[in-house]
Design a protein that fits this description.
Elements (H helix, E strand, L loop, with lengths): L2 H5 L1 E4 L7 H10 L4 H8 L4 E7 L2 E8 L2 E7 L4 E5 L6 E8 L5 E5 L7 E4 L4
Antiparallel strand pairs: 1-2, 2-3, 3-4, 5-6, 6-7, 7-8
């Protein structure tokens, strides 16, 4: 079973106060104003992952805001990077360790997200 098949469903990020500072820094790095970054860091987002054929959709619901990544493995896609509407061209692929990786296409943009399911 692939990582993507294991990820399909509804997930809730369990907030850990030790993660708050790291999440706040990450959100600021994505271009969010400090107040929004702090609010996001204190939330427990709901993540819905679905599949329709070879198209995958990851939707983040954070308080009253949502952002969605819809993609096919190995094909560039427009990824909304934050609730302020900023976008970047990204590429999703499965790495050698079987994890889902979403990485910016522009080599100047060093953002990368790595998804894994732990049993």
């Amino acid at each position: 079973m692939s990582i993507l098949q294991l990820m399909i469903g509804k997930w809730k990020h369990d907030r850990d106060s030790d993660d708050d500072d790291l999440i706040e820094v990450l959100m600021q790095g994505l271009g969010l104003p400090l107040a929004v970054a702090r609010k996001t860091a204190c939330s427990s987002p709901i993540i819905n992952i679905s599949q329709n054929g070879d198209v995958y959709c990851i939707q983040f619901d954070i308080e009253k805001q949502s952002f969605v990544a819809t993609f096919k493995i190995g094909q560039p896609f427009d990824e909304m990077t934050n609730p302020m509407g900023m976008k970047r061209k990204s590429l999703a692929y499965i790495d050698d360790e079987g994890r889902l990786v979403m990485k910016a296409v522009d080599p100047k943009d060093t953002f990368i997200s790595i998804w894994n399911v732990q049993a």
